[in-house]
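Extended Data, panel c. Modelled sequence:
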Amino acid sequence: MNSNNLIKPKEACQLLGISIKTLQNWDHAGKILVLRSPSNRRLIPMSEIYRIKGQLVTPLTVLYGRVSSYEQKHKGDLDRQVATLALYASDTSSIKVITDVGSGLNDKRKGLMTMMDMAKCHEIDKIIVTYKDRLTRFGFNYLHKYFSAFDVEIIVLNDTVVDKSPQEEMIDDLMSIIASFSGKLYGLRSRKHKKITQKTKEILLDGLDDLHLSGQDKK
């Protein structure tokens, strides 16, 4: 629901868990912004509901884990991610675990959508992930800006991946794109996707090196 939408007092009370009388008292005391319709009926902006719910609810710390396929999940990769996150947040009292099984290129993952909705309602104040690409394969800065707008901090345990050259990181990105589009093209489940072999990776890497050298020769 758009935060600029105006709702009736009854709906506002249901969302906030209060009575009509309490809402009226809050209105008189200036604790909630209440607008008036042309017929002088009370209308409450959804932005006020989000603001007040944020004050009434103790924000949670979300431990977010993601794997690309159910095969990885069955191998325990997802459980190991969550265990690592839980160990890091062992001193945190209010924790919620949210996980996804799907591509990091998929911006409509159920878990990701849940976190975005919770942030909008000020129900969370931290999201902890093992690596940036667990949250998203591309566009991390866009998500970071979105969550920051709702005062949600993203904590990345391993902010940099060592022993990978810029070319190798680019190859990983290309492999992710190819795997994603091949799955959509052939309608196959992730566990049935054709594996991109090491040889393919070497060919792509050689191609990037050739382009780099070619660019230097022209200088």
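The chain has three domains: 6-56, 60-156, 166-217. This feature is highlighted in the accompanying rendering.
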